[in-house]
Design a protein that fits this description.
The structure is a single chain. The chain is mostly beta strands. Helices cover about 5% and strands about 45% of the residues. The protein is built from 2 helices and 36 strands. The strands form 9 sheets. Strands 1, 2, 3, 4 and 36 form a 5-stranded antiparallel β-sheet that branches. The radius of gyration is 23 Å and the shape is globular.
């Protein structure tokens, strides 16, 4: 090859490199890698959410190695992420005899600490690390994350399994990744404190086990256990905050002081009750799920004209209930709220007003949890109502999901009935941008940061 040909090849390769670099620059920087459940295929997909001068963009890709599920008989339940690893639960329609369990996904996102800040790399392709879907996993309907622990409720085995990103990565087989514990019964909900104690609920509506919660020692407390009782049964919902544990029975909310040594005598445990009022038929109001922001425990309750957003400050010795009535139309209901702390410290709650029969009327409500900035949430108010896409509710599936991006500048909302994702800024009047995904996107997690 002569000098002229070599020079031409060098110039062409240099130009191509400049074009590729410019193309990547025009595509924008990656803000986060988003994973979402696609109900149309009972699978998990992902895309890198990018922002450029031209706006937002995301592509939809399959997760390598995700198992093929039976659309008629299997579905996905909650999923969570920690240290770049995602766990998603699998549930079936026949008490786990068809195939249930969990799937662990490597997000491919790598964190590089740089002193007082972090860089995120998105070069690796997501893949399934372990898939543990068998006929003996107890048909989990709930998956939780407390600290670095993933907890799956193995309903039909009357217990729960605990794993972590490290245990899943270190395990040669999925069976070795998680440890099973007895506790809870039926449709189990769970709260875990500091990997030392778990509170596992019983769903029993009546009888000797009505209102029962098993207190199960973990780690250094392995082998210790006892049970306590709430005044009513049908327990569905549990969380922990500021050293207290909260439960959602048939009537109101109950809470206890957490026993991290598992040394309390059951008869000495004081179960506190916070009533939520009654409906038009004189039936006590209840909730079904909690979310946390700092020391605040948030949840929705009621139906129709009695609907409301509720919160409890768990840092108070004897916490009281703070309520925000929310008017909903016939056929509408409120989702479980999501709480975020925006850049600048503003505390917000976001809650979807969903209409199963008329999903085109769905809206996202933005609630300021402390308008006057004095640290007291009693002046909370609705500051914005945003029209969103359609739900596709069927049973427990098809709801909108709200996720705060790690930057604290934006949230994303899934629209299952439209096959789209919305990006909503927390800093410019909450203007939404709609991005097509296809399928029926529902639950989501966002990994990494800008």
């Amino acid at each position: 090859m002569n000098l002229k040909s070599t020079l031409i090849l060098f110039l062409l390769s240099t130009t191509a490199g400049m074009v590729n670099a410019q193309s990547e620059k025009n595509a924008g920087r990656t803000i986060a890698r988003v994973f979402w459940q696609d109900d149309s295929g009972a699978t998990v997909r992902y895309g890198d959410l990018k922002k450029s001068a031209n706006g937002w963009a995301i592509d939809s890709q399959d997760v390598e190695g995700f198992p093929s599920l039976n659309l008629d008989e299997q579905s996905l339940v909650q999923m969570h992420e920690n240290a770049g690893l995602i766990i998603v639960g699998v549930h079936d329609t026949d008490d786990g005899t068809i195939g249930s369990g969990w799937v662990g996904i490597e997000s491919g996102v790598v964190e590089e600490p740089h002193g007082d800040h972090t860089h995120w790399r998105f070069k690796q392709t997501p893949r399934v690390l372990h898939s543990h879907v068998t006929t003996d996993q107890g048909n989990p309907a709930h998956v939780y994350q407390y600290g670095q622990s993933f907890i799956l409720a193995n309903d039909k085995k009357n217990g729960f399994t605990i794993a972590s990103a490290k245990s899943i990565r270190d395990a040669k087989t999925p069976q070795a990744a998680a440890k099973f514990h007895d506790g809870g019964n039926g449709h189990i909900t769970l709260a875990v404190i500091e990997s030392k104690v778990a509170y596992a609920t019983w769903i029993a509506p009546a009888g000797d086990d009505c209102g029962r919660v098993d207190v199960v020692g973990l780690g250094v407390n392995e082998g210790k256990r006892y049970s306590i009782k709430c005044p009513t049964g049908m327990l569905h919902g549990a969380t922990t905050n500021a050293g207290k544990v909260f439960f959602a029975p048939a009537d109101g909310v109950c809470w206890v002081n957490g026993d991290t040594d598992v040394n309390d005598a059951p008869e000495s445990v004081k179960v506190h009750h916070l009533p939520l009022g009654k409906d038009d038929n004189d039936k006590p109001l209840r909730t079904g799920a909690f979310t946390n922001l700092g020391s605040l425990v948030l949840f929705s309750a009621g139906k129709g004209n009695g609907s409301k957003l509720c919160l409890i400050d768990a840092s108070i010795d004897i916490p009281a209930l703070v309520e925000l009535p929310i008017s909903v139309s016939e056929g509408e209901s409120l989702s479980t709220p999501v709480a975020v702390k925006a850049r600048g410290g503003k505390r917000l709650a976001m809650i979807c007003r969903e209409n199963k029969e008329a999903p085109e009327k769905d809206a996202l409500l933005v609630v300021d949890l402390d308008p006057n900035g004095d640290g007291n949430p009693e002046d909370l108010l609705i500051m914005k109502s945003i029209a969103i896409g359609r739900n596709q509710i069927a049973g427990h599936s098809g709801h909108h999901e709200i996720v705060a991006l790690p930057s604290g500048r934006d949230v994303i909302v899934s629209n299952p009935g439209d096959g789209t994702l919305m990006v909503i800024s927390l800093s410019d009047a909450f203007e939404p941008v709609t991005l097509p995904l296809g399928g029926n996107p529902t639950r989501m997690v966002a990994v990494g940061g800008s």
